[in-house]
Amino acid sequence: MKRVFGAKKNKEPPPTIQDATDRINKRGDTVDEKIKKLDAELARYREQIKKTRPGPAQEAVKARAMRVLKQKKMYEGQRDMLYNQTFNLDQVAFAAEGIKDAQQTVSALKSANKELKGMMKTVKIEDIDSMQDEMMDLMDVSSEIQESLGRSYNIPDDIDEDDLMGELDALEADMGAETESDAMPSYLQPDTDLDAELNLPAAPTGNAVQNRPNAQAEDEFGLPAVPRASLRG
């Protein structure tokens, strides 16, 4: 069958914009090399024209230089045309890349939109509102529990403002009395009335004992002093 109808040839894919751009750039480089060679040849003819006297010889050099200049102009025209083609391809490539970016952006947005829709199906506003109401109720119950646990016992509730001011006045009077007695508590202060009623004599001092005749010497604690000779043994 292949011999009768022949095998189907695989078509080559069409060149891409980048392939066309690379091909044109290579042609442009080739044309630039030719233009550089023609410039060098023109420079050589210019020196010959300067050194040659006017006449047939100089005219022949000028003719050759004119022919080279025409070739240079032709190549420069081709180079400009290639540059224009490259510019057009760059514009098309930029537009194609922009379209690709737009396609990717739209695809990403569609995927994100589909994902958001799936997520929104699992989240309902009614459920959120119900959960918020339950949280408020739980907070109120928690506050009531804390207040109930923090109640104090055996505290009278019939205290009014007059009782408060009387208590403050009594505290102020007690503080003033303690200040007058050098901050010494009343139970530590000496009772002068009790000493007057008992009429007890004053305790003798060491000097009074020494002033009595035939009194035995005493130490600083009021005890009989021991002679030092007896201590030495």
CATH class of the domain at 15-95: Mainly Alpha
Kindly report the average pLDDT value.
Answer: 77
Please compute the radius of gyration using only Cα atoms. Answer: 63 Å
CATH fold group of the domain at 15-95: Helix Hairpins
Shape summary:
elongated
What sequence of helices (H) and strands (E) makes up the elements? Answer: HHHHHHHH
**Distance N terminus to C terminus?**
155 Å
Tally of DSSP helical segments: 8
Taking the sheet with the most strands, its summary is: none
Helix content percent band: over 70%
What class, by secondary structure content? mainly alpha
Proportion in β-strands: under 5%
What is the compact description of this entry?
The protein has 233 residues and is mainly α. It has 8 helices and no strands. The protein has a domain at 15-95: Helix Hairpins.
What does this structure look like?
With about 230 residues, the protein is mostly helical. It has a domain at about 15-95: Helix Hairpins (Orthogonal Bundle). The chain is about 75% helix and about 0% strand. The protein is built from eight helices and no strands. It has helices spanning about 1-5, 15-50, 55-120, 125-150, 160-180, 190-200, 205-210, 230. Helix 2 runs antiparallel to helix 3 (about 55-120). The longest helix is centred in the middle third of the chain and has 67 residues, at about 55-120. It is elongated and about 160 Å long. About 0% of the residues are buried. The model is unreliable at about 230-233 (pLDDT under 50). This is Charged multivesicular body protein 5. Belongs to the SNF7 family. Pfam families: Snf7. One of its GO terms (biological process) is late endosome to vacuole transport via multivesicular body sorting pathway. It comes from Asparagus officinalis (Garden asparagus).
